[in-house]
Amino acid sequence: MGVIGRREFLGGAAMVVGGWTQAPPAELGFGRDPGGLVEAAFAAGELPGLHGVVVARHGRLVAERYFDGADMRWGQALGTVRFGPEVTHDLRSVSKSIVSLLYGIALAAGKVPGPDAGLYAAFADYGDLASPARRKLTVGHALSMSMGTAWNEDLPYTDPNNSEIAMEMAPDRLRYVLTRDVVEAPGTRWRYSGGATALLGALIARGTGQSLLEYGRAVLFGPLGIDDVEWTNGFDGKPAAASGLRLRPRDLARIGQAVLDGGEGIIPAAWLSESTKARIAIDAEVDYGYQWYLYNGSSGGSPWIGAIGNGGQRLTVVPKLGLVVAITCGNYDRPEQRTVPLKVMRQCIYPALAG
Known about the structure:
Layout: E1 2-4, E2 7-9, E3 16-17, E4 20-21, H1 34-43, E5 50-57, E6 60-66, E7 69-73, E8 76-81, E9 89-90, H2 94-108, H3 139-143, H4 163-169, H5 173-178, H6 194-208, H7 212-221, E10 230-231, E11 245-247, H8 249-260, H9 269-275, E12 280-281, E13 286-288, E14 293-295, E15 304-309, E16 313-318, E17 323-329, H10 336-354
Antiparallel strand pairs: 1-2, 3-4, 5-6, 5-17, 7-8, 9-11, 10-11, 12-13, 13-14, 14-15, 15-16, 16-17
Helix pairs in contact: 1-10, 2-6, 2-7
């Protein structure tokens, strides 16, 4: 490992770093060094707010780059952070996809109700809220964010009228979600909802008798060799299922590798197959599974499985290419939160492969 530009990178002879086996780009089918392309694009001002990029192919680490920048912890400013391989980063809504993995593990252990189970039946202590319309909702509707209930996260997360912020400010997080009116038939339209993930997190915690962080350490993070993990608590003192996870980018990529490899005996392969099936369309190119984004390849390029978070956090798994890319950024609530990760992939990673 050497040093170039802003921070550590991979290059040269194979070695083990952070639990990964390193390999030179050319050995894994890259015509150019993707890390070098990231470095050049950042220096040219094309990737503002980028904090980290980790690239792996065929189970080996190809490149990583880190850049200093202003960051937050679940909305609280941290100032300028010197990022590197050992520094954790907010993953925001990437957390939702990790909740899906934990749900699948708990499901295989018989600790949570299945996707076909009634959602309100799973929260019997809120039985007073189970109206006829709400009784039609299933756990699967929460998993696919197609509950059909009133929810608006299109507003900035600084706005108290944003439904996720209102949920966090409510005296009872679960009651807030479960009291939302049914405004359309469940399963007919995708509506982005941190509340859906909050319900899933509660099912996991109730079924296992452990917090999301405790259970995650026992069944996912620990078995994958991930020892530095945090899950920020919401205002009710419990882990914020939808957005509170913090990991090192290398470890996020490690989870992506496990997804690519069929779960590695840690995540049930059957659940990965089910959770990454298209359940409902977001638009013509992207579908949603069970807390995963799924690009269908209709506009070119290989289909991918993705986890996406506010600020530019992204995990991309491209099965046909054997590729895993973890990206972290600090562009919270900014327009470039969407464009920077796309530029990394389109201007740096894919062109390096094509070269």
